[in-house]
Structures
1.
Amino acid sequence: MNADSQEGRPSLAEDQVGLVVEVFRMLADATRVQVLWALVDRELSVNDLAGYIGKPAPSVSQHLAKLRMARLVSTRRAGTTIYYSLENEHVRQLVVDAVHNAEHAGPGVPPHHRGDAVRELPAHRTGTAE
């Protein structure tokens, strides 16, 4: 395989590279990764997310604002409550793949290959609040 020939794969425009870098920068924070993982299969409010990941609601809210600005999460209002969910299927797949890739760093067969994962790849649901 010749690394110099990338026929069929155009180079990325600088502005697109910048957006990709921003996505990875958002993923370079443990709290944001926990927030995104919590949202893989459901939408949650700030308070629900805070309870789920064990962080104060104001801190979670700040992280959600950054994730929203990076277009990784979106919101839905129901009365006075705002629910957060992943922006799209690509974000969901990115988060799931990153977690599954991290599982390969440990010894033995990763949980997602054994079927006894604490949290297997969930079926994607939209429009549900828990």
2.
Amino acid sequence: MTARFDAVGLVVSDMAASVTFYRRLGFPFPQGAEEQPHAEAGLPGGIRLLLDTEETVRSFHPGFRPPAGGGRASLALRCETPEEVDALYEELVRAGCHGELKPWDAFWGQRYAVVHDPDGNGVDLFAALPGAAAQ
């Protein structure tokens, strides 16, 4: 038996806000997903991003409680250029998203920034700096 990585699942408190956020980042959620208790966006390579409302999770796990405090996981999105990192970060912050870490030139050779989704999950935005080895 071999397990195969298939999806990343997030529990969300507001499906509409989460679908809107991830659509801004290019995740192709179908029309009407914002009104559903479960939504999926297929990604290149066959991986999926799954969103489930807290109520959905409680329907099969009655003791579920959303974590308190900071997250321990994040999604990382590669941008084509350092300028795209800056532009996407600014677009998301202007749209009301929490900018956790403004874009900066990281010592490991990337333009790097962090925003939070509506539930506080980190979303890293990064691109290789000119002259840096591909990451």
3.
Amino acid sequence: MRRLIFLILLSLSIAVPVSALSWAYTFVVFDRNAYEVLDTIIDEDALGDVIGEVGTTVNDETGRYYGNASNGYPIGTVYREVDGESVEDVIAVEDGSEWKRAEYRFEAPYHSRDFIQFFGYSLLGMGIIMISATLFKRSSLYKKEE
């Protein structure tokens, strides 16, 4: 019986603590700018073009995020321009069947994945250019005049 009590106390003392962040407000990130989503509803006729969507969610344990992220909206939530407002100041965020106003608060922190993504696209572009140039030189269109 003592062993059982000792094992229970031991297992309770080394339990892994669980933590989760609590956010002061709901936000979305678009083009490395973080916007606070307000409860202000925007009419659909005051909206412009679709400019993006939520691509990732915020890690609730670490608070880290990258790209177009949100701490309160699911992946695929759409962002739109607001007519008469600069995208750097205000965007509209889809919230069910309505659109909510989101105002700029701060620049999102840099994440290493931003660089990796940029570097990957750069390598892909250079590869396409090199393959295209090689194929063009081998084609009949590129003949050296004798």
4.
Amino acid sequence: MDTVMTILHVGTAVFIVGPMAILPMTGLRALRSGNAGQVHTLARSTAVFSWLSLLTFIFGFGAMSLAPEQYNLSMTTPWILWSIILYAIAFLLNVFFVVPQMNKAAEASGGEKAAKPAGYGAIAASNGISALLLVVVVLLMIWKP
């Protein structure tokens, strides 16, 4: 059962958390080209993937609790604790900042093509921070200090 839970954790990380981090970047390209409808769709998709990423979080707890005793894993294990904190920050950034900013920028652009539409910098910065935090989480999972 430990193997199944680990596979679910890693699988959802790849197929759910990955798009959660990448879709806003596609939204920035659509924003530059003036495609407001696509930006709204990508914002909605980012929100869905962000909420679905909670499955990865849940499967991670399952994998931790089913891990053999020899690994001595708990929520206070430093790499697990830091992974939880960084994931929570990335999740909150996506749900409460990136997605609303994408919707606001799509409405403000009005379908006009622009080099840097309104809100572009805020979306790029917050999504960049979120993606960077998720990369650090992956590195913590691999490195396990």
